[in-house]
Amino acid sequence: QVQLVESGGGLVQPGVSLRLSCAASGFMFSSYAMSWVRQAPGKGLEWVSRINSGGGTTYYADSVKGRFTVSRDNAKNTLYLQMNNLKFEDTAVYYCVKDLFPNNPPVTEYDYWGQGTQVTVSS
Asked: How many CA atoms are closer than 13 Å to the CA of 35, on its beta-carbon side?
């Protein structure tokens, strides 16, 4: 059974850093690209970042480029999102999301989502 469990969220002030983690189980983690998607209060889903199965290729939304870094440890079946210089507009629930198909397909489709972790940036 696939499980994605996020952790690391919290209430922080603008400008500080947080690192989110996503512990994956129930599938061959190292074979799948993974993504982070967020949802701000009252807004729709926003794709944040993606990392290929081997960890060597990453992608970012313009809104977080240069501040966020996605990484993974395939030996630990864990996905990370390092978030630096957090802004008020980064307030959202952050979801860890698994690709539907393995081996980095050209078209992104998702099948499993974690429960989410809340990040609140407030002074």
From this structure: 22
CA angle 84, 87, 91 (to 5 degrees): 105
Q: Which residues of the chain have pLDDT under 70?
A: none
> Which token pair is 36?
């982070």
Instruction: State how far Cα 7 lies from the chain centre.
Output: 11
Per-residue model confidence (pLDDT) at position 106: 85
Tell me the CA distances in angstroms from 71 to 11, 22, 88, 96, 107, one per residue in order: 22, 11, 23, 12, 21
**Residue 107: what are its φ and ψ, rounded to 5°?**
-110, 130
Alpha helix positions (H), the chain: none
Per DSSP, 14 falls in state T
Phi, psi at residue 31, to the nearest 5°?
Answer: -95, -5
Express each pLDDT in 79-95 by its tens digit.
999 999 999 999 999 99
Nearest to 47 by CA among 3, 82, 85, 96: 96
Cα–Cα distance between 110 and 113 in angstroms, integer?
A: 8
